Amino acid sequence: MAAEKGSAFLLKIGNGAVPVAWATVAGLRTTQLSVNGEAVVVTSKDSGGWRELLSGAGVRSVSVSGAGVFTGSAAEARLKANALSGVLDEYRLSFESGETMTGRFLVTRLDYAGDFNGERSYTLSLESSGAVVAA
Questions:
Q1: Which of 27, 59, 113, 120 is the most buried (most CB within 10 A)?
Q2: How high is the pLDDT of residue 79?
Q3: What is the spatial distance between Cα 13 and Cα 25, in angstroms, rounded to a whole number?
Q4: Euclidean distance between the first and final Cα of the chain, in Å?
Q5: Phi, psi at 119, each rounded to 5°
Q6: Cα torsion through 98, 99, 104, 107, rounded to 10
Q7: Model's pTM, two decimal places?
Q8: In the beta sheet, which residues pair with residue 62?
Q9: Which three-class secondary structure string do you get for the chain?
Q10: Which of 6, 9, 11, 7 lies closest to 125 in space, CA to CA?
């Protein structure tokens, strides 16, 4: 697998239409993706002292976080509106290889910060709701 540029790891938000048109959340300088899973333990006396897990069971989720400079783009405005209203929306993670991960996410955190004579920055966190599809 070839190394990929971090700048090519993009967070995109849908426009709510069918079919969905994607807009890149501008100004993001850092992004992070975590795939989480909870295990269902099925260990018994027959396990020989080793823990056993049930394949395909448990809860899976995807968490996304990012930080960047506020640019006032339409995508940032939609993300902010979603955060304020607590609305789930379609998001897509796009990678340099062309791979994508798409699903419905809730903005669980949106922080703004700024220094005198400095740019306005923000950090965000998203949590998946339902299946996240990799393509």
A1: 27
A2: 95
A3: 7
A4: 17
A5: -75, 155
A6: -80
A7: 0.87
A8: 35
A9: CCCCCHHHCEEEEECCCCCCCEEECCCEEEEEEEEEECCCECCCHHHCCCCCECCCCCCEEEEEEEEEECCCCHHHHHHHHHHHHCCCEEEEEECCCCCEEEEEEEEEEEEEEECCCCCEEEEEEEEECCCCEEC
A10: 11
